[in-house]
Amino acid sequence: MTVSYTLEVANARFAGFTKLLFRWRGSIYKLLYKEFLIFCFLYGLFSVTYRCVLNEVQQELFERAVRHFNKFAKLIPMSFVLGFYITTAFQRWWGQYTSFPLPDNLMMVVSGNVHGVDERGRMMRRTLMRYANLSSILILRSISTRVRKRFRTLEDIVDAGFMTVDELKALNHLTSDFNKYWMPMTWFTNLASRAREEGRVKDDIALRLLMDELNNYRAKCSMLFHYDWISIPLVYTQVVTVAVYSFFAFCLIGRQFVKPERADDLKVHVDLYIPVFTLLEFFFYVGWLKVGELIINPFGEDDDDFETNQLIDRNIQVSILAVADMHQNLPPLQKDKYWTDKALSRTFTAAQPVFMGSTYDMRMTEEDMEEVMADSRMLPISVWPSAAQKQKKSRRRKHLCCCCCKHTDEKTHDGDAEGMDMIPNKTHCPEQPEDTAQTQCVLAVETSDEVQTAGSRDGVNT
After folding, report:
1. How does DSSP classify residue 453?
2. Helix, strand or coil, per DSSP, at residue 427
3. By the 8 A CB rule, do 99 and 306 touch?
4. Is 356 within 8 Å of 163 (Cβ atoms)?
5. Which positions ≥6 away from 136 have C-beta within 8 Å?
6. 380 burial class (0-12, 13-18, 19+ CB within 10 angstroms)?
7. Tens digit of pLDDT for each residue in 137-191?
8. In whole angstroms, what separates CA 227 from the centre of its chain?
9. In the chain, what are the domain boundaries?
């Protein structure tokens, strides 16, 4: 996240902001010092040339140019152009911050409305949250350079535990020219509907609450993608940049200390050699421009940019490291004209490249990869009971199962926990041949042989 200095200004006191002026990380000095040194060097070069190289005739011509540039450089409306631009950029920056897809509200709704103390109920809740976090990772990966370096490919997301191999196959099976960050959210909705059918979501009101929170979460992901897609108009950025740099290009000559035009002005003329007020003006105006450059895209790698990797590490505490559960909606009642087409031919629009995110074609070097590997070391998070605790609990201890109302061992539910898998189920419509059958992913709970044996022995369908 941005560099914080809240503690240092907790109390209002004499010269309270003075300490902040000597910080380097995230400071304006770090952004501006290169341009500032170049301006000072060029100003000194013109000054030395005027004083030591030019003859009297050439000096007189140079003095005329200085007065002319100084007179007309004031016509550039610096304060108006920069002020409106920075206001627009700051509103955009704050809007991107408020659009972060934080899963806290959704996590609370899932925890309070998806019931069940057995392993299957727990797995459903964790899988729902893992789908939500997967969507946020897919969208952040397409707009943030830091997240893109951390998750170079979709396989890296699988290795991190946010997605399973079967889910990756289902994601790649869908052919789309656009970003597919929304696909895990459809898995969320289908799994929530299955939980309603099983009675783990008590009523339709609770299910609607789940859907409303998911839609809010999806809307934030969509807003981040749109902020990355639609920037501040390039023409306005160019106008601001040209105005600032042309103004100070004129100041290199127009602010030189030269002989006064009239002899009477020699009494009040001061030759300072160093243009103190011009340097301050450069610091303010160009610093203002650098602020706009910094906040126009807060998903880069500057000191004051958003720490998206820290956001992911925070969300990993509520992510779900479990087996996937895929369940697609039923086919629509009426088939559209593209029902049998695997790839739609867009004859109604011209062939244009589709925007997939600003980091889609980003190239990374070996140095970037070494830096990412050094920075992305995550602390271990205990999400399941340790092996010692698990063995201690399984020593001939019985507990009451909420599903079958029988005393069963812990091993029975361990078999259930491993049973949620994604199985492709091909359903054929009578009007379509077999080769055009639509593949659907349905929820399947595979019970182990031990569970089936126990169920047949007790006469209870688990």
Report:
1. H
2. strand
3. no
4. no
5. 101, 103, 217, 221, 312, 315
6. exposed
7. 999 888 888 888 888 889 998 988 888 898 999 998 888 778 889 999 999 999 9
8. 10
9. 18-97+233-295, 103-230+307-327
